[in-house]
């Protein structure tokens, strides 16, 4: 029986199959779900058969890092975490795991399902994971809601709305709200509680510091332009406005606001363009102002800008990097290479220029890149196309009886007589 597309397994592309990639770093790789689930299920089956499994069991599965696993958005990974929830949370690091799940768009289903259990151990919502030391976490050995991560999760809006009072009573509220303001799905919530949010204690700046994050929200542009308090004169190069500018430069829907002011900025203002370089809709601006952003810049700012470009999620970013490949391949900053290796769009360049950069790439970051995998269905189709269809197509298209169609390529209008008897 022919396999359906969903049943096809993912396999490593040839180049990466030949590398030594640690399975533990594949735990957050969306396309490594087959390896992950097989490893976990195999281990759990083994200890079950040995009658070692119980609700109080603390387990450490070889090649599985739960902190990385909690970042994985694949539905099968979420199912595995739910299936072994009691064992998974009976761990000294359960506070960290729950915190990471709060940031996982698909992990919200687990947070909702186990909300009462989590809140029971959350000490009336006064414990915030972000402010525990590793030593304190191990001592407490209980769950905690990370409100900052939850506020930034696009799928957590119903939870936030239902538990708004708990959020407003949480410690470090300003810190938590920075994520809410940058959440693209939170605009209705922000507008609903607009008066309350604006009346909170302010920073030394004209607006509360947390509101800076609103300028990075793709869905907040209309809200900003309708609110007189939020309109900023970007031509006034004050320290405060430079902060607004940086956040605005990261907003993919703010290009029409960014572009007019780029023409008025001198070279100094564009030296640190990290957020602009990470904006998926700003590639044409980066290309236009390349000399200011990269060529005529000091090493520190240049590396920061390269980091932003390597984090850019626009698939066409690879063409911009390749356009300046001679400059890029000589970068020595390790973090730039880490970000490059994690970008799914960069795998094409890694494969193409591997011999030139094989000593710069980071194998651990590559292991987390979903594009190192290909599904067997695609591989089979490519092989069939190459071995069968291409050959048959060439035989038909380039048959001598069709040669008259290509006279213009031969540069002659004379009749071409070819004996096709033997073809």
List the helices and strands and how they pair.
Layout: E1 10-12, H1 14-17, H2 33-49, H3 66-69, H4 75-83, H5 85-89, H6 94-103, H7 108-113, H8 115-120, H9 134-140, H10 147-152, H11 157-162, H12 164-168, H13 173-182, H14 187-192, H15 194-198, H16 221-226, H17 239-249, H18 255-262, H19 274-277, H20 283-288, H21 290-295, H22 299-311, H23 317-323, H24 325-328, H25 334-342, H26 347-352, H27 354-357, H28 363-367, E2 373-375, H29 376-397, H30 407-410
Antiparallel strand pairs: 1-2
Helix pairs in contact: 22-25
Tell me about this structure.
It is a single chain. By secondary structure, the protein is mainly α. It has 30 helices and 2 strands. Strands 1-2 form a two-stranded antiparallel sheet. Helix 22 runs parallel beside helix 25 (334-342). The chain is globular and about 80 Å long.
What's this entry about, in short?
The protein contains 30 helices and two strands.
Strand content: under 5%
User: What's the pLDDT, averaged over the residues?
Assistant: 80
**In total, how many beta strands?**
2
> Whole-number radius of gyration?
27 Å
In helices, the fraction of residues equals 40-55%
Q: Low-confidence spans: pLDDT under 50, at least 5 residues?
A: 1-7, 124-143
* Major sheet details: 2 strands, antiparallel
Structural class by secondary-structure content = mainly alpha
Q: Please count the helical segments.
A: 30
Distance between the termini: 38 Å
Q: Shape, please?
A: globular
Going across the major beta sheet, what is the strand order?
1-2
Highlighted features:
single chain; 423 residues; mainly alpha; two-stranded antiparallel sheet; 30 helices; 1% strand; disordered N terminus
